[in-house]
């Protein structure tokens, strides 16, 4: 986990409930973290410094910083562990660099405050949510080009317009969190201002389904484990009519 105030990446033992080590990033706004396959390296996006820090998890030391642009927040490592993609929401660009050498291989322009990145399971497509433009954009990873774009056009409740987050992206449903289905056929996006999660079909990003999720949904992850606790975001089933 990251600590923005103290500028560290913390390693936590969940079973023992204790911090194992604290590795300094020496950068401002250390916010999001992505782990390379094999848990060899971690990459931390630093929003205020406009950089991404590479950390060797085995030795617990910082390897270096990559300049990735002001507002660097969205970050993901390709499934093969070879590349790191970082989107800078203020700069409006995606930086791609080698996970081993830290050398930059591409910079892709993307306006609209790109804020999250997720890859398809085969690593061929990168999906990016854009908070300000209310869009999800898909890129061909190898060709480094945009292949699809979809505006998340769902209704925003009137009550949401008074939220503190409403000023972050006026007129947008504020799409943030992303999750890709295991088969790569769907991508889910959290439309925070609309209190909804939207399912899009790949590769064209056509809208498939919309789920009502109260409370400004944001971060998402997929799990094969079915919940055994009460789902507080789900509507209670209607009572059946009495029988004669």
Task: List the main descriptive attributes of the protein structure presented here.
four-stranded antiparallel sheet; 244 residues; mainly beta
Describe this structure in words.
The chain is mostly beta strands and 244 residues long. The chain is globular and about 50 Å long. Strand 6 (51-56) and strand 7 (61-67) form a beta hairpin. It is built from no helices and 19 strands. The strands form five sheets. Strands 4-5-6-7 form a four-stranded antiparallel beta sheet, with no helix packed on it. It has a four-stranded antiparallel beta sheet with strand order 8-9-10-11, with no helix packed on it. A four-stranded antiparallel beta sheet has the order 12-13-14-15, with no helix packed on it.
- What structural class results from the helix and strand content? mainly beta
**SSE order in H/E notation?**
EEEEEEEEEEEEEEEEEEE
Kindly state the mean pLDDT as a whole number? Answer: 91
Poorly predicted segments: 240-244
**Major sheet size, sense and barrel closure:** 4 strands, antiparallel
Q: Helix content range of the residues, please? A: under 10%
Rg of Cα set:
19 Å
- Order of strands, main sheet, comes to 4-5-6-7
Count the beta strands.
19
Beginning-to-end CA distance, first to last residue: 58 Å
Q: Roughly what fraction of the amino acids lie in strands?
A: over 45%
Number of helices: 0
Shape: globular
């Amino acid at each position: 986990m990251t600590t923005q105030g103290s500028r560290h990446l913390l390693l936590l033992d969940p079973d023992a409930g204790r911090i194992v080590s604290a590795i300094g990033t020496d950068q401002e706004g250390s916010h999001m973290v992505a782990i390379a396959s094999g848990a060899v390296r971690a990459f931390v996006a630093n929003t205020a410094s406009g950089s991404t820090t590479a950390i060797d998890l085995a030795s617990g030391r910082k390897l270096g910083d990559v300049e990735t642009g002001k507002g660097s927040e969205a970050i993901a490592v390709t499934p093969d562990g070879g590349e790191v993609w970082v989107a800078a929401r203020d700069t409006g660009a995606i930086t791609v660099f080698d996970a081993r050498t830290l050398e930059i291989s591409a910079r892709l322009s993307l306006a609209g405050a790109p804020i999250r990145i997720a890859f398809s399971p085969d690593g061929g497509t990168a999906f990016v949510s854009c908070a300000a433009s209310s869009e999800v954009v898909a890129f061909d990873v190898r060709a480094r080009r945009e292949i699809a774009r979809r505006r998340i056009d769902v209704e925003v409740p009137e009550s949401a317009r008074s939220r503190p987050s409403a000023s972050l992206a006026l007129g947008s449903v504020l799409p943030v969190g992303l999750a890709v289905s295991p088969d790569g056929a769907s991508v889910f996006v959290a439309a925070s201002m609309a209190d909804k999660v939207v399912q899009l079909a790949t590769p064209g990003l056509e809208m498939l389904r919309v789920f009502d999720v109260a409370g400004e949904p944001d971060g998402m992850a997929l799990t094969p484990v079915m919940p055994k606790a009460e789902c507080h975001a789900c509507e209670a089933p209607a009572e059946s009519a009495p029988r004669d």
